[in-house]
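Exercise 7 asks you to align residues with tokens for two separate proteins.
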Amino acid sequence: MSRAEETLDVLVVGAGPTGACAAALLKREAPQLSVAILEHARPEAPPRGAPLDVRVSALSRASERILTRAAAWGRIAPERVQPYERMRVWNEMAGARANVLVFDAAEAGEPNLGHIVENRLVQCALIEAFESSGGRLIEGDLLGLRVQEEHVEAQTATSQLSARLVIGADGARSAVRSAIGLTAEVSSYGQIAIVANVATERPHERTAWQRFLGRGTLALLPLADGSSSIVWSADEEVASALLDAPPENFARELARQSEEVLGAAQLLTDRLSFPLSRMAAHRYTAHRAALIGDAAHVVHPLAGQGVNLGLLDAAALAQVLACACAEREDPGAERILRRYERWRKSETQLMALAIDAFDRFLAHGSGPLSLLAQRGLAWVDRSAEVKRAFIMRALGVSGELPEAARRAAPPGIS
């Protein structure tokens, strides 16, 4: 094993979209900082013409601006990106053509409500932007951390790295979080998410469709090749039956549960699944360490906010560290990191509470409060002011935003 070379200013553990974004922003906002990413293996972008991946995200306007600031948005192949202009949300107690909550970009004076993009495309674009700014990606697995007074030592199978600050962006089962002794509250939703790409009889109309089913939530997201991505969050018993069903039976049930808003469906990919849990770290920072994205918080996918929250974390932390660097502060100083923690923890807690309420009262509830919430969808649809507030929140342009999320992005993918 080789000994540590020079001490880096920042080591980011995890090259997913959140970690790669934090690193790319840091190299642009504070180019004098030495920054490296530690990742198991370098991801590869899909070859031109390859089928669309199953794992996609609905990126908000705030995320688009952050990726633009990181010099990554323009590196994403536009032919694989699908803007969506409307969202239609309804409950199983109401038909798909009546009592539906409709969000339309035109109502907010926006060209779209966001973009459906493959996670791998975002990740690769950010890594390319990071490296083009002088950053370094190191392939390897984190085996251990030793936190010293002035630096952190990170051990891999082949080397020992040293950094004044380590950023844990390594997912819900974060090795960084465990190594630095930060604890988290974890609980299961008792649900399984099923994701797949499907062809449908009718065009998706550049619309995201979502139906609350009583025992889960079904979303159909428009994709650039005319197909749709499904995210079906169902109680474990229901999900197990759906996963065991032959493809043609699954497709029929999908059409039935979506009230055939897009007609008959046909599976284009295998069905992937993963159990759903909520997780909230009690602290986002420790001595010379900070957590971002899923390493700090995991929310239910029904609102599609996981990646967006992570990118906001990345932008907020990068902004705090760049300001500290401009003032010649130590990037690992506790008071600097606590500023980031106070900022982002309050924002993510608020979003997590709202998402859990949607799951409890709209996707699963049957009591008086749930009936009130379900009727409230139609009430919100009739109130232009309230609906605009929801649209602004969905676009990610309300709340205490990092500077990178506030600036208007130049014309790009649309």
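Second protein for Exercise 7:
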Amino acid sequence: MADSLLVVGAGGHGKVVADAVMEMARWSRIGFVDDRSEHLKQVAGVPVIGRLADLMALRGEWSAAAIAIGDARRRLEVLEIVLGLKFELPVIIHPGAIVSRLAAVGVGTVVFAQAAINAGTTIGSGCIVNTGATVDHDCQLGDGVHIAPGANLAGDVTVGDRSWVGIGSAVLQGVSIGRDVMVGAGAVVLQDVPDAVTVYGIPARVRSEVIRSRTDD
């Protein structure tokens, strides 16, 4: 039990989380929990052993959990459920990532291969720092933030809870991005962004106040 981990969510994102878990070689037993368990028997060679509703029953056999749900609100909701059930919620860091010893990373956050997090940065709970993303010195990321593949945050950037910084985007030093923001792919963010808007373009501009839910499994 002490070295067993459940990955909650068995979609594409869950597959990458499971791969990082296996590369860490810390847990001898890994399983998926997903509400599609009737149709999914295994993903990436890892068995799908039950539904989210089974977490309480599984607590006696499994010690730790990693949340692999793309939608930020749902991810944070499930994180609280898992914490309430007394699972350990480790930080999952792929061995190919670089995380400064002077950075702080919250529970349930995942950091994928080739990502870099530099000194003085604080990252909240349930975040995703995706493949090849960079978060430079003294950044502050809230809970449930997703820094998408290849996105680059310069130093002293702030990103509010549940915001999504899209693939290949860049954020200028010292910029503050609000909560529930969607930064579009390839955007260049040169100035502060208010809460609950979508921005994209070069330079990035506010395009919408309606945030489309992102549910990468």
